[in-house]
Write a structure and sequence with these properties.
Strand content: 25-35%
Order of helices and strands: HEEHEEEEH
CATH superfamily of the largest domain: ABC-type transport auxiliary lipoprotein component
Number of domains: 2
CATH topology of the largest domain: Rossmann fold
CATH architecture of the largest domain: 3-Layer(aba) Sandwich
Structural class: alpha/beta
């Protein structure tokens, strides 16, 4: 009877040890997963010696006189959009931390951009009314040129895109202004990724 009791206690201890090991392994795996998901571009793969960037205020090249026509009646425009893009881009570079924002003539890189198109396209209409749009997509298109400190072009890209989609009705509805802010945020994120990651 005593041997049986000892054997049972030994099995219980063995099971507890296995459980402890299993839990420890699971916690370690979860920790590694969270560390892996905490993505950061800081200290990425930039060329040697590149530590700062100057963002030139974006220029607006949209011809607003051609924005709204009978065929493109959903297109519109928010004044000073290029300033909002510049401010959000500087904010995004600071948040990313890979490159410091520098003053003109003290930078390693110089980013120049121009806003060339703002699109607001209907995606979905109300079932009962073909004139009522319930979902839109907003696209912001910019031309970008990145220069080095010797004013040589590092890369350039035309019609670089930031976008968002939004509902005008229902629980997930938002204003056009809020949707434009989301598109600006998306554009800024993509520009920063293009600058700091593609090396």
């Amino acid at each position: 009877m005593k041997k049986t009791t000892q054997r049972i206690e030994s099995n219980i201890l063995h099971d507890k040890n296995i459980r402890k090991i299993f839990i420890s392994l699971m916690l370690a795996a979860c920790s590694l997963q969270f560390i892996g998901c905490g993505y950061s571009t800081k200290g990425g793969y930039l060329p040697a010696g590149i530590k700062s960037i100057y963002v030139k205020p974006f220029v607006n090249k949209i011809d607003i006189s051609n924005e709204i026509t009978t065929t493109n009646k959903y297109r519109s425009y928010r004044p000073l959009l290029e300033i909002d893009i510049t401010n959000k881009l500087v904010e995004r570079f600071r948040l990313d931390g890979t490159l410091k924002i520098a003053k003109l003539d003290s930078q390693d890189w110089f980013l120049e951009g121009e806003l060339v198109e703002f699109r607001k396209d209907p995606l979905k209409y109300a079932d009962s009314d073909e004139e009522t749009v319930t979902e839109y997509r907003i696209n912001l298109m910019v031309n970008l040129i990145l220069y080095d400190k010797d004013n040589k072009i590092v890369w350039s890209e035309n019609r670089f895109n930031g976008q968002t989609e939004y509902y005008t009705q229902g629980a997930y509805a938002k204003s056009e202004s809020a949707a434009i802010d989301d598109a600006i945020t998306d554009l800024a994120r993509r520009i920063v990724e293009r600058v700091v990651e593609n090396w």
